[in-house]
TrEMBL record:
Residues 1-62 are annotated as: Disordered. Residues 22-34, 41-52 have a biased composition (Basic residues). Residues 1-21 have a biased composition (Polar residues). This is Uncharacterized protein.
Amino acid sequence: WQVISTAGTTVSAALSPASQRRQSRHTAQIRKHATSATTRHMARRDRARRRATMNGWGGCWS
């Protein structure tokens, strides 16, 4: 992530301010989407682990 964002800012800095602004908004959208996707995935895995523990296979997950 760090490398990509640094490269993106370097490229957009060479472009006009308008496109730079658009680039930053686009990057923010991507980051926001990635964060929400990760959170959703973590929640799903957490729910699966809880269900497995209820079923009595807690040992598989610990």
